Amino acid sequence: MQIYKVGGAVRDRLLGKPVTDIDWVVVGATTEEMLARGFRPVGADFPVFLHPKSGEEYALARTERKSGRGYGGFTFHASPEVTLEEDLIRRDLTINAMAEDDQQNLTDPYHGQRDLEARLLRHVSPAFAEDPLRVLRVARFAARYAALGFTVAPETLALMRQLSESGELQALTAERSWKEISRALMEDQPQVFIEVLRECGALKVLMPEVDALFGVPQPETHHPEIDTGVHTLSVLEQSAQHKQPLTVRWACLLHDLGKGLTPEEEWPRHIAHEHTGLKLIKAVNERFKAPKDCQELALLVGQYHTHGHRALELKPSTLLELLQSVDVYRRPQRFEEFISACEMDARGRKGLEQRRYPQADYLRGAATAARSVAVQPLLEKGFKGPELGEAIKRERLKALKAYKEAASA
């Protein structure tokens, strides 16, 4: 029995990056031997075990064969005869197909170290094209290592394009797709993820609503970058630079989908794109079964981001409607995320990345004014039920009028 550290742990050590998760592969062992040593099996049919003390995953060396569509369409074969090289060849990228023993002696049959030095994301074997999930994974690695100068090898991009055209991407489950998308959005350069998907034709298949934004112009006075797709990438880039949470990044990606529906004869204006985009945002949310908080914020930002930008001009009644729609009284954190997404949208414009966004503090002040309305005095006056709701609304409107006047003075 021989045990090797494999995959990401080896790659990141060679890159000088911190190693978090460690995967191990065991060569020359049987399931019975692993159980006898106290390892606990993971699942019934999968040759993966948990270490009795550390809880880390140890997998028996295995080969795999394509047996159906999609990410799960594989048959695995694990036995003591499977070599380390046979196990490594089934992996996606050469930089993930290296192993080292307990003395840090490197086994690198597919030249992963060479590709690390060349800053290339290259597939290990033609079997890469058998797993559609790898299109998303490679795009995610491109986003993760873009700052180090990594690019996708042309021959790997060609295979990704082949996969995108094959119809295999449709076989991916919402859960697997979302796992990759959400991880990619939290990388340092998530816009690279979208760029790579677009370059290989996968964006058109997975998110045609986002793909449709490229080539759609906007008024140059507001958007010096003009192209709506380029603007979306810039907003996403800003959200990463400002360390925004996943909810905000997802909303940033989807906020302008309505502009993809504007008839060409109306370009570069996009009247009511906030409302036309809602059905598209809803469709993308449902397609990937995004978490509820991501779905809700994306819809709110899609509908109200222009309200955010025009906050200082809004009538008190419109301001009140915005505060109530975001549910600022019970969901203050969501309101902060809404403001953040609006700010990223404002900064995601060519040459305006550093411009101040006074709307943020103005909106926070408006929320404070509306929250300051006390309910108890209204109860003491005898208001109850729907009448109480109307009375609270009137008092909040009065507070917002006073706030606006004070801010304008």
Q: Looking across the biggest beta sheet, what order are the strands in?
A: 3-4-5-2-1-8-9
Tell me the structural class: alpha+beta
Q: Characterize the largest beta sheet: strand count, sense, and whether it forms a barrel.
A: 7 strands, mixed
Supply the number of structural domains.
4
Describe the structure.
- The chain is α+β, with helices and mostly antiparallel strands.
- It folds into 4 domains: 1-110, 2-Layer Sandwich (Beta Polymerase, domain 2), CATH 3.30.460; 119-206, Orthogonal Bundle (Hydrophobic Seed Protein); 230-370, no CATH class; 372-408.
- The chain is built from 20 helices and 11 strands.
- The strands form 3 sheets. The chain has a 7-stranded mixed β-sheet. Strands 6-7 form a two-stranded antiparallel ribbon. Strands 10-11 form a two-stranded parallel sheet.
- A hairpin with a 6-residue loop joins strand 4 (48-50) and strand 5.
- Helix 11 (228-241) packs across helix 17 (332-347) and helix 14 runs antiparallel to helix 15.
- The longest helix is centred in the last third of the chain and has 24 residues, at 385-408.
- It is elongated, with a radius of gyration of 26 Å.
